[in-house]
Amino acid sequence: LPYDISHWWHGGRAGEGLGHPDIPLEEMLFILCVHGTKHLWDNLKWLCDVAEILKAEKPLDWDLFFDFTRKYNCPRMVLIGLLLAGDLLGAPLPQRVQAQIEADPQLIGLAGQVVRHAFVDAEPPLSNLARMKLQTAIRERFADKARIWISLIRRTKPAEWQLIALPRQLFFVYYLIRPVRFAWRWGIKPLRRLFD
Hints:
By secondary structure, this protein is mostly helical. Helices cover about 65% and strands about 0% of the residues. The longest helix is centred in the middle third of the chain and has 15 residues, at about 75-90. The protein is elongated, with a radius of gyration of 20 Å.
């Protein structure tokens, strides 16, 4: 998500002047949920951080929390983090959160896929393609789904550079090579036949 953190350094509270940002718990919880879901909760300590915030004695301002969710159009990413913290680590979830989880019929199934691949040893690790599919399914809006795949295409890597040496002026061609290489690698038959 394009997320501006400049306001962290101007809160006028305890962290100011010490070189440490002063982040409201609601915003930190939002960031942790989005970050963890983006990476499919590969690290259990991220979920522990979410659970600890939910278990804290200080009450959370859920209106403020869901303001961030609406602003950045990522309710499912956030709710998956809260659901996993509640189910796996016993973190308390208010009725308001429970109601939003129940209102999304796909949410529990998607969270189950994350659990199987992040926390169950018997499950084989997700392939890159499967990770992309799951990350795409988690996003609700078509624009956000498309952005995931566009970002993959835009990140050229040494595999493309080694395939063919191009002068600097033609570097843009690597962005055309990348999706074709992925299509061939991931087994789209019509394109594969072209290279056989």
